């Protein structure tokens, strides 16, 4: 198998690794970097469990080769907390009970952060549309939407959401 050397920044840390050319980003994160927060679900890009942010945009890590991300910045769920404090969206997920089994949670969080970057004050319709690539089998989606709305309020306490 052909090997490729890549330089990739994950959670603000630069990694230079030589990996098989057919290594997916999901495999790279979990097996090479031991960042197991990103989950393997369907392995077909349908469930969203493996969602990470690449250059700020949500991406199914099971569908992209690690070599394609040479020189790129990746954010995983392990990179959300800062200085020992959870991201406001993580706090909101816990507060409203949007976490049950937790398998979908890393992908939901990263998709939710991308959504909040796109729509700082999302409506429920925007949340529904932007989160449709993430499947949850435990909580249903109402609490996840509630958590995103709560995080939006906390990220901008001067804004009153109309949704």
- What fraction of residues sit in β-strands? 15-25%
Instruction: Give me the secondary-structure category.
Output: alpha+beta
Number of helices: 5
- What is the helix/strand order? EEHEEEHHHH
CATH class of the largest domain: Alpha Beta
How is the quaternary structure best described? Answer: single chain
Please give a structural write-up.
By secondary structure, the chain is of the alpha+beta class. It folds into two domains: 3-79, Roll (Ubiquitin-like (UB roll)); 88-155, Orthogonal Bundle (DNA polymerase, domain 1). Helix content is 32%, strand content 17%. It contains five helices and five strands. Strands 2-1-5-3-4 form a five-stranded mixed beta sheet, with helices on one face. Helix 2 crosses helix 5. It is globular and about 50 Å long. The mean pLDDT is 94.
